[in-house]
Here is the input.
Amino acid sequence: MSDHVTIIMIEDDEGHARLIEKNIRRAGVSNEIIPFNNGTDAIKFLLGPDGTGATNKGKALLILLDLNLPDMTGIDILRRVKENEHLRRSPVVVLTTTDDAKEIQRCYDLGCNVYITKPVNYENFANAIRQLGLFFSVIQVPATS
Here is the structure.
């Protein structure tokens, strides 16, 4: 994965978060991981102090998103990321226990790139992360003007 890609992990279950990070590392991905255990803090980071998302303009972010958070739904976060002009190109991997077909379709309709149901098959998960890394290595992030 490209070294400049920052992984934003939004996961409220500390055990799941540790397991996800362990398996990202096991897959050979050494990128910075910034963890959040609730949606409020994650949104504040992603949208920045002014709420526009401009602080992350041009940055390569990969968002790992749990749908079941204590303070808001992952669907709300996904919608806000994909509606934001500075964040919408950031790939989003949904990692959740929800396997309802309508919920999965809703996430894809909103723009998620990969939907993985917990308990995670970590081989498939690692492969998805590596493939998104390849995506970052061939896609140029537009220069900021």
Notes: The two ends are 25 Å apart (CA to CA).
